[in-house]
Amino acid sequence: MENKKEIVLSGIRPTGFLHLGNYYGALRNWARMQYEYDCYFFIADWHSLTTHADTKDLKTNTRRMVSELVAGGLDPEKCVIYLQSDIPEIAELYLYLNMLAYRGELEKTSTFKDKVRQQPENVNAGLITYPVLQAADILIHRALKVPVGKDQEQHIEMTRNFAERFNHRYGEVFPLPVAFNYGGELVKILNLDGSGKMSKSENQMNTIYLNDDDVLITRKIMKAKTDQGPVAVNSKKPDYIQGLFTLLSLVSKKDTVDKFEEDFNQCRIRYGDMKKQLAEDLVSFIRPLRENAQRLQQNPAHIDGILSDGAGKARKSARATLVKVREAIGF
Ligand code: TYM
Asked: Is the minimum distance from the CB of 197 to ligand 1 under 6 angstroms?
């Protein structure tokens, strides 16, 4: 039997700077998976048009994002890194999948409902079929594992539905992909006031970006929402406090986390001390990533080289899938 590695695919929209949510929800897994699987990682520049019609900064944003991904651990020798817009085969598959996607399910998608609230004046067809394009991204390589954060879970479930429908109607072409995280549970990193998930474009003081400098990281953490502390032992933590503990558990030593957990449980926590420690540990974690990304960005030709190399490999895989798809449909 052929000994092939499982195929992994994931992507990110170039709509802002990379933040800790992207890192812990996605990139950290990607950087580890590249050594164990056949990995494809891409910049979803077509998807960004559903919300960001102005494309004047697209190229700069895309290159910056690739620099951040490489600084965050992706090795272009170990995985395929490419732009969605370089792979026209994805658009063709999107077209076929659109015939298998129904208005009712698309309108019920949580991310769609959020966007309708955020941009009621621009509810375009691309926005409503966003999950179909995402399914095409995944199925074009017949990927099995999709490392993403919690917010993408529903899109992966929809991808499975579209794949199943395709297989049922035209014949078995696609495996059914699953959302993946090494820890088991998918991750959701909260923003600094605990009011929702950390995100690229919402309130910038509530999000820690991998591009933030030391002073800014410290300022954001010191301003993060806290309260007087718990009044009863072993209380449940409010979301905004849990968010800080989650960050602490990601960047600080186990002893440090245990100490603050114990202080919280015994109602003697001093949030000022905890935030100081968290800021210090975040700064040590982010500084090398930021410096590396900035260094890489000074060489756009190198980044373009990574992307054209990646496009070549991704198109080869995409073409092979399309041959099967066209044959199954009966063209
Ligand atoms: P995007 O660009 O919003 O985010 C990229 C990745 O980061 C994760 N993420 C988070 N994880 C935990 N906590 C957070 N606060 C947080 N914020 C973002 C996301 O879950 C994602 O894994 N639709 C996708 C892009 C995409 C895609 C795909 C992903 C297009 N096609 C195919 C996988 C497979 C998106 O908008 O991700």
From this structure: yes
Which pLDDT tens digit goes with each residue over 230-263? 999 999 999 999 999 999 999 999 999 999 999 9
Ligand 1 nearest atom to the CA of residue 25, by list position:
11
Q: Which atom of ligand 1 is nearest to the CA of 13?
A: 2
Atom of ligand 1 nearest to the CA of 199: 17
Q: How far is the CA of 150 from the centre of ligand 1 (A)?
A: 9
- pLDDT at residue 3 greater than cutoff 70: no
To the query of whether residue 150 is one of the catalytic residues in this protein, the response is: no
Condensed to tens digits (0 to 9), the pLDDT of residues 25-35 reads 999 999 999 99
* Partners of 9 in the β-ladder: 40
Strands (E), the chain: 7-12, 38-43, 80-83, 145-147, 178-180
Distance from C-alpha of 9 to C-alpha of 146, rounded to nearest angstrom? 5
DSSP reduced 3-state for 117: helix
CA of residue 11 to ligand 1 center, whole Å: 7
For the question of residue 197 being annotated catalytic, the response is yes
Average pLDDT of the residues in 141-169 = 98
CB of residue 152 inside a 6 A radius of ligand 1? yes
Give the Å distance between the CA of 253 and the centre of ligand 1.
Answer: 27
**Who contacts 314 (Cβ-Cβ below 8 Å, separation ≥6)?**
40, 42, 80, 82, 86, 87, 141
* Distance (Å, whole) CA 186 – CA 26: 9
Q: Which residues pair with 80 in a beta bridge?
A: 40
Instruction: State if pTM tops 0.90.
Output: yes
Tell me which of 115, 145, 220, 275 is the catalytic residue.
Answer: 115
Instruction: Please give the domain boundaries of the chain with CATH numbers for all domains.
Output: 7-180+299-329 (3.40.50.620), 204-294 (1.10.240.10)
For the segment 64-71, the average pLDDT, to the nearest whole number, is 98
Reduce the DSSP state of residue 330 to 3 states and report it.
Answer: coil
* Alpha carbon separation from 245 to 206, 261, 314 (Å, rounded): 15, 8, 39
